[in-house]
Amino acid sequence: MTLVMGIVNVTPDSFSDGGRFVDPDAAIAHARHLHEQGAAILDIGGESTRPGAERVAPRVEQERVLPVVTALADAGLTVSIDTMNADTAAAAVRAGARIVNDVSGGLADPELFAAVAATDAEVVLGHWRGPSADMYAGARYDDVARELADELLTRMADAAAAGLAPDRIVLDPGIGFGKRGVQNWDALRALPQLVGIGPRVLVGTSRKRFLTDALGADASVARRDLATAVTSVLAAQAGVWAVRVHDVGATRDALRVGECWEGAWTP
Ligand code: PMM
């Protein structure tokens, strides 16, 4: 059964929920709510990766995320830390995070793989072609599926060289990262090939702009959760291990419907 990773952005500027959970108590309460709705993993981030976003100093990032990671891990919840920074990753794992979710797949900070390898945490390798400040500079592909798989295999090889075996790795096609409109749909269509590489696969479509291809250019962020639930079910049918979403309840319901349909879930 596909797991749901609930998004907790402790940032003032994320594209869909920026500013709502900067206060640690609000972030912790929100994470607990997502857990009750069915999130198996809570993904805590202190740096926005929306297109155009500037980097955040690791000290600021850590001030935002560590109290939240500590409180949730102490409560026995499974926490992932959404960071591109090796120091933040190491500090979050010390605070109890089990997964380091790096959208850059180890490219933003060359120390990150070694930092994670020194712990017993797992790592998510996102497909990425450069920083959010210039998000679409690398969005040029001859064959999205092939290039995505080749580049993630290279990231896996680098992770392995640092001591991270495939069973500690999760691959992510990085929807919205260095991909415009139709390139995101090409990446989603390539999910079965990605799953075929071997490691578990995570996919995050939640509220992302490419969904307006289907919904219309004027579809507000608030209107994208149903479409997110649908893409999450389709990703589940392609064999992914987990989906990363904001509206956990809607996606959990949709995944259950898909599981009932396939006979994989009985009440
Ligand atoms: N997307 C965002 C942030 N972190 N992590 C993973 N593994 N995969 C993603 O697709 C991903 C991510 C950007 O979305 P947000 O600002 O809503 O968190």
Brief summary:
This protein has 267 residues and is α/β, with parallel strands linked by helices. 42% of the residues lie in helices and 14% in strands.
- Choose one word for the global shape: globular
The molecules bound to the chains, other than polymers, are: pterin-6-yl-methyl-monophosphate
How many DSSP H or I helices? Answer: 10
Number of domains: 1
Kindly estimate the percentage of residues that lie in beta strands according to DSSP. Answer: 5-15%
Poorly predicted residue ranges: none
Share of helix among residues? Answer: 40-55%
Arrangement of strands in the largest sheet? 1-2-3-4-5-6-7-8
Q: What CATH first level would be assigned?
A: Alpha Beta
The tally of beta strands, per DSSP, is 8
Query: Main β-sheet, in a few words?
Result: 8 strands, parallel, barrel
**CATH architecture assignment name:** Alpha-Beta Barrel
Mean pLDDT: 95
The first-to-last residue Cα distance is: 14 Å
The CATH superfamily turns out to be Dihydropteroate synthase-like
CATH topology: TIM Barrel
What does this molecule look like?
The chain is of the alpha/beta class. The chain has a single domain (3-197), classed as TIM Barrel (Alpha-Beta Barrel). Helices cover 42% and strands 14% of the residues. It has helices at 24-37, 58-74, 86-94, 112-117, 144-161, 181-189, 191-197, 212-215, 225-237, 248-261, and strands at residues 3-9, 41-45, 79-82, 99-102, 122-126, 169-172, 200-203, 242-245. An eight-stranded parallel barrel has the order 1-2-3-4-5-6-7-8, surrounded by seven helices. Strand 3, helix 3 (86-94) and strand 4 (99-102) form a beta-alpha-beta unit. The two termini are 14 Å apart. The protein binds pterin-6-yl-methyl-monophosphate (PMM). Pterin-6-yl-methyl-monophosphate (PMM) binds next to strand 1 and strand 5.
